[in-house]
Write a structure and sequence with these properties.
Blueprint (H helix, E strand, L loop, with lengths): L11 H12 L17 H12 L1 E2 L19 E3 L6 E5 L25 E2 L13 E3 L22 E3 L7 E2 L12 E3 L10 E2 L14 E3 L12 H5 L7 E3 L22 E3 L21 E3 L6 E2 L14 E3 L4 E4 L2 H8 L10 E3 L4 E5 L12 E3 L4 E4 L13 E3 L4 E4 L13 E4 L3 E2 L1 E3 L12 E5 L6 E3 L13 E5 L19 E5 L4 E2 L3 H5 L6 E3 L4 E5 L3 E11 L4 E4 L3 E9 L4 E5 L4 H4 L5 E3 L4 E3 L14 E3 L6 E3 L12 E3 L4 E3 L6 H4 L5 E3 L6 E3 L12 E3 L4 E5 L5 H6 L2 E3 L4 E4 L13 E3 L4 E5 L21 H4 L6 E4 L4 E4 L8 E3 L4 E5 L12 E3 L4 E3 L14 E3 L6 E2 L13 E3 L4 E5 L19 E3 L18 H45 L1
Parallel strand pairs: 3-5, 5-6, 6-8, 7-9, 8-10, 10-11, 11-12, 12-13, 13-15, 14-16, 15-17, 16-18, 17-19, 18-20, 19-21, 20-22, 21-23, 22-24, 23-26, 25-27, 26-28, 28-29, 29-31, 30-32, 31-33, 32-34, 33-35, 34-36, 35-37, 36-38, 37-39, 39-41, 40-42, 41-43, 43-45, 44-46, 45-47, 46-48, 47-49, 48-50, ...
Antiparallel strand pairs: 1-4, 2-3, 51-52
Length: 958
Amino acid sequence: MGSRKATSVLSPLLFLALTFYAESTDPTPGPISNSTIACNAKERAALLRFKDGLIDPSGWLSSWRGPTCCHWTGVTCDEPSGHVTAIELTSPEFCTDYTFGGDSSESYTPRCLSGELSKALLDMEHLQYLDLSNNNFQGIAVPEFIGSMKSLRHLNLSYASFGGFIPASLGKLSSLRYLDLTVDPYSIRGLWVSDLHWLSGLSSLNSLRLVGVNLSRASDHWFDEVAQLSSLVELSLFGCELSKFPNHSQPLNFTSLTSVDFSSNNFHSSIPKWVFEIGSLVELQIMDANLVGDLPAIQEASLCNLRKLHLAFNNLTGNIQGIATGLSGCRNSSSALEVLDLTVNKFSGALPDPLGFLRYLRVLQLSENTFSGPIPSSLVSLSRLEVLDLSFNEMNGTIPNGIGRLSELTTLNLFSNSWEGNVSEDHFHNLTKLTGISLSSAKLGLLAFRVSRNWMPVFDLESIRFSNCIMGPRFPEWLKHQKNLSTIVLSRTEISGRIPNWLWIISPQIEQLDLSGNRIAGDLPPRLSFGYFSRVNLASNRLEGPFPLWSGVNELSFRNNLLSGEFPAVAHLHLPELKYLDVANNSLTGKLPSSISKLKSLAYLDMSQNSLSGKVFSNWTEMPNLKILDLSRNNLSSSIPGKMCSLFPSLEWLKLSMNGISGRLSSATLRCPRLSTLDLGENRLHGPIPKWTLPNLDAISELILRANNFTGGFSEELCHSKNLHVLDLSDNHLSGSIPGCVADMVGMKSYGHYYQLPLEFRSFYKGSIELNTKQQQMQYLDLIPLVNMIDLSRNTLSGEIPEGITRLSFLGVLRLSENRLSGNIPRDLPLLTRLETLDLSMNRISGTIPASMSSMTFLVHLNLSYNNLSGPIPWLNQFRTYNMTVFEGNPGLCGLPLRNSCSTHGGQEGLDDDGARENRDKDDRLIDLWFYISTGSGFFAGFWSVCGLLVARRSWTE
């Protein structure tokens, strides 16, 4: 899940699934047609006027003719009076503002009604049942006159694209038992209310469904109005933009309420205690509602009717001991809890033993929390358990053999914890219904899967996901007996040898194959067919041969293997739906084929670290969906075409470093509207760095042009970037001064939300940037947002270091070495409290080293060598750890760690040892004062900023 945290509104498919499921609980029986009943003449005429207001392109109501209206489509009459009692015109089609063809035939017209609702409905005074759901009334308002249809007991206008204000006149329907105004999530229209006071008139209401209706204007009082509906059996306020979840201390009159759904709201509060005091509840759903805090205490045996509890996708905290104990009091009840879903919260602590007393439990989903400790032994007594999901927690210990006694288990998900020990066939001896299993540990070596070579499982899996679990060295032979496999994930399992032929034979049924991070060798089959939109990841193995053509694949990774030969020019014919392709770090040769651009669905392409040659993007055509492109570390040549941004209009990440690309960089190359990361380092580009335009500057966050032949001055346009936080222009021929406007670089003054690879790509690879941040080249992946860096080293820049640079408060790396800079070290440099690397070496900088620099406690890498600095070296805090190479080449410097003492050094003559010591003590006292002032705030601000972002990164990456 990404975030694994769900977004504020669940996906439309889940939206539909939840609402259709709840509709099946309608307590009002549907109409039963009777074609033998005589038709009331007045009501027959009313039906025809009603039909005249409708638009019926499919002729669905073509039967509405002749004298006997009681056998017309969707009409039901009472016997023997002939009065119309029900109109049921719910469409079986998918009718919405968007076109989704249910039939490929061009002549097919969906059975969808639109138009207006005629007041002729008022002439059917005995009408009790009106259902116009699943049509498309294109945003017309719910008619006011419906409130005058006094006999109505069932009103269903759901998924029919009504829009606008819900009339308060509906509150006059005192006989109404069922009201469903669910909004179609695919419609561009919506329904809303100004208040809910009219609900008090619906005294007979059993079912209220306002799914997707905007109730934000009634958020302060919605509960007071709903609480008056004492006959309610079902209440669904899913996705209603409610922001308040009120506490209520008085006893509630909900004696019949069995189903409640408050999901997809924004309560930002804890769950009120009254929710768990409704003893009649059978199903409670409050998912993705921004709930916080601990769960309220539950009185033991107070919810013995509750069968389903869904609290997933919130921010609930604390342990679950209380809820487990409260619900376990019903262990002798025949209607005790069956489903407990607490997925994606912040629950912690050990799983409580009372969970094992919920003996009717069928589904236990606790994934993506921070539960710790082992699996409680009591869980193996849940004999009815079908789904056990403990994935993505912090649990540890061994996996109990008793899991093998859970004979009803179909899904066992223990992925991403810190399990240890061995898993053997004893863990599965009675799991005859198992169809899906996932298992992994924090790191390889803690957990092993050990079964006999001739083991024949009792189950037939559809999905297996093992990672960081030793299964090798042989490929598990027992898998060939699993005839229904569609998902096979065996990553980092120490499997070696060749992939068995039986696996290639079943490729048409495979939707996901992941064997990455093993030692698998051998040639790949040149042609295969996989399941439609399948994902194949064979990265980091020892596979050989030419690039294979495997049809049906949507995502494909051969990263870090031994593939050779040319990339096939006909790849687009076999892989037309390919969206993700990673063949980095192989041995592919030949020219970069223009046919790659015929892969029009491609969004991610990484062919870095091969031996590809030829002109870059020569004869390429537009790739409208390409977001990520990495062709670095090849032998590509020629210039970058000026039309590059029109070739890749969606480009967000471009890396062409370490090639032989030459020529001038066109300004058009920098005008890709979404380009965030541009790495053209270590090529042969020359001429001035082109001018940027402000819209493009707002997008760029990492700009790397190092080791080229760029000339001219520092582009002052870069000062105005809002998000630029990595700027590497080192090792070029830039001249002139560093402009004072660098103080305006907003991206260096915070840890912003810089560009991250989209979640859709991260299951394979996260993208990387090589940066020289700590005196050596380092590769950055997840930590890129935490790097704020300016590297202008190895140019011919002159003038003084601008004082304004000290206002870049989040700057972590400043490298200005090997230039012609002069003047003094800025006196306010200690304001850069987060600076970790400072390299000013091999310049013409003079003056003293500011004593206050001793307060820069984050400064780990310092180089001031080969300048014209003089005076004593500070001797406090981290300055005591630097060796002499940091200061060498400055004849005027004295003091440790250099060998020349300040007491005998030029400029210090006449000072005896006592005088020098006294002056040094005064300096140290001043340094101490500066240290406590600047570090006290700087350290804590830096510490919590970094740690806070690292914590937040967990949700970004998972």
